[in-house]
Amino acid sequence: MKNGKTILIIDDDEDFASALRKILATAGYHILTAGDAKEGMNVLETTHPDLILLDVMMEQYDDGFTMCSAIKHDDRLKDIPVIIVTAVTEVTGLKFDPATDGEYLEAEALLRKPIKPDELLGKIAELI
Amino acid sequence: MNDRLKDAAGKREKFPFLEGSRVLVVDDDDMIRDACSLSLSKEGCVVETAEDGETGLAMLEAFNPDLVLVDLKMPGMSGLEVLEEIQKRAPDVVSIVLTGFATIAIAVDAMKKGAYDFVTKPSTPDEIRIIVARGLEKRRLIMESKALKIAQEKIRRNMISLVSHELRAPLAATVQFLEIIIGGMAGKVSEEAMEMIGRSSQRLREMLDLVGRWLNLATFDPLRIADYFKPVDLSDIVGECVKAMGHVAGEKGIEIILERPENLHTMEGSREALQEVFNNLIGNAIKYNREGGWVKVRVFEDGDDICAEVRDNGKGIAEEHISRIFDEFYRVDGRRNAPIKGSGLGLSIVQTLVKAHWGTVAVESELGKGSSFTVRFPREGKVPRASKSARRSLLT
Ligand SMILES: Nc1ncnc2c1ncn2[C@@H]1O[C@H](COP(=O)(O)OP(=O)(O)O)[C@@H](O)[C@H]1O
Asked: Judged by CB atoms within 8 Å, which residues 10-39 of A form the interface with B?
């Protein structure tokens, strides 16, 4: 049931990445993974995935945001939809940060960790 | 010599804080500059002098003094202006005023502008040494408490990073695996196992939620949020919260009564943050209530303040607990199996958010009778415009 589409997962949490890989593989996607933003950029030099799943809270706090912004300002890459995944909860409405909220918007979607598999697959199907 | 100095001078005490301390003297009178310089250098102080305010302020950064002696009456920039600038640029530096005419009014004015003490001219070398020594002791205390604050801040940061990386990340990954099993993507599981996995996922999600709430509170920056405040209508916001809570109240057989005026003045704030405040207060009033109880929510104006009161006739809070309910994680019934669930974070979040809006929260309560929480905010245009550094020290 290969659907031929390629997704790049960039996350420094190996377990989390492997869980995402499992969900996406079940749905027939082809998966690439990178452990940090730098590795992710290297992968993007040689490949052009159909979608990127990007964790924004890697070791370096703003790695993910910076990377998202870099992708969206690169003529060769900016057409690739990016879904930001983050463990930052906003349940209390306390995290009020337009500076980074603005950058969220550069991505096509934002999903909170942990992600319901249906929600993830639904979002991806919407975008590619 | 005036009375407040006689005692100390009489004892001819040593001045332990003078040795090696850096003192800047700002005075247009060279006799005074030389006199101060001489009597302080004798005790081992490093002294620099400036003949006017501008020069003195320019030296503030280069010389990095522990203490500044400032003449009140100088040509050009006045002593009070110099004090104000020092307070702004180097709030940890202790300043002492030199004045030829000591009136209470001038002293009070100087103290308001940040002076710690004053010396009346003419003054003896002893007077200068005693007052400077006292000022330097103050400086030592300021620096010690600052070091302590920095240490505490470091611990807090480590805690935040620990909670976020070592607690939240593994929890999220674990729940993610469970979701895969629940979603049937890891093969068939017995119905019984599935139910347990479902419960585990639920419990872990609750824990994640708590961790997230704590992290939000711990990383909350009141100054940053204030930069994005907009004029809002508190009556509107409270109305929405009451509406959203109606369902929960109805389920528990509790009546919510809302009383709010037309044409309330606006206040400066964040809608989301204020909603959070009232969701917590109204939520508590419902939670700690009784069958058939009521919650009265009233928005009103009092002078320049926009206020809201959330009153209930529920359980109430015993006096000995009242002072602690705003503490992080404090719960009156702190037992693990307490019948009413909660994290003890709600009211600390309320207080943090209210303070960020230049507001206050007051509580009145009687055990068995009920409680009332009143918040007050300055209305738009009546917000104190303190400098950022002054606000930061007020808020932390
Ligand atoms: N309206 C109220 N009536 C009685 N007790 C209250 C009320 N609001 C708060 N409390 C008490 O204050 C404590 C702290 O409240 P809060 O910080 O909101 O945490 P939580 O409700 O999660 O325990 C509560 O555990 C409760 O005992």
From this structure: 13, 15-16, 19-20, 22-23, 26
